[in-house]
């Protein structure tokens, strides 16, 4: 019975204390009282570092300037500029042609001749900033193997492939890199020989 008689007064006392603390806290917040909470001025000073206080009192974390990523990750300036570089530089070779070999001035670093090929003819024709090139040759490899070779070589230099018209039974593929273009045509002439030709236009200063 003694316990039951004390329960009522104790509960009432606890309720009064809780209500009093809540009222004091609310009053202190509005007055900027340190005991009641941070004032509006204190909230703004706390946001002077990496936090910014909005007008409604909310805080936004500001990203440090050093952490801002400029450009796409993994793409450096050197990589970007390398893709835009011209394939040809310096004075272009004089126009010439040759039967049974590779003509002087042919840009073999851009359009190499398939190893093991037998050259029928080659030629270069130049203007101020344009070089037209041609090769006619045969190879013991299959037509698909010849095309696969030039796909690999040209794709590494930034060329993209698209289909090109060709009279049957020939197959052709077109490769583009900005203003530069190369067409590879292959024809199976016998069981062991594939005829192929390369025709291209390269521009000094042209790029992707």
State the separation between the terminal residues, measured CA to CA. Answer: 95 Å
Order of helices and strands: HHEEHEEEHEEEE
Radius of gyration, whole Å = 39 Å
Strand content: 25-35%
How many helices does DSSP assign? 4
- Main sheet summary: 7 strands, antiparallel
| Total E-strand runs | 9
Portion of residues within helices = 25-40%
The residue ranges in which pLDDT falls below 50 over 5 or more consecutive positions are: 1-50, 58-83
Q: What strand line-up does the widest sheet have?
A: 3-4-5-9-8-7-6
Shape: globular
Query: Which secondary-structure class do the elements indicate?
Result: alpha+beta
| Mean pLDDT metric | 73
Descriptive notes:
By secondary structure, this protein is of the alpha+beta class. Helix content is 28%, strand content 29%. The chain has helices at residues 2-31, 40-46, 77-84, 143-155, and strands spanning 51-53, 59-61, 96-99, 118-126, 130-139, 160-164, 171-177, 180-188, 194-203. It has a 7-stranded antiparallel sheet, covered by helices on one side. Strands 1-2 form a two-stranded antiparallel sheet. It is globular. The termini are far apart.
Briefly characterize the structure.
With 208 residues, this protein is an alpha+beta fold. It is built from four helices and nine strands.
Q: What is the topology?
A:
Elements: H1 2-31, H2 40-46, E1 51-53, E2 59-61, H3 77-84, E3 96-99, E4 118-126, E5 130-139, H4 143-155, E6 160-164, E7 171-177, E8 180-188, E9 194-203
Antiparallel strand pairs: 1-2, 3-4, 4-5, 5-9, 6-7, 7-8, 8-9
Question: Top keywords for this entry?
Answer:
208 residues; 9 strands; 29% strand; globular
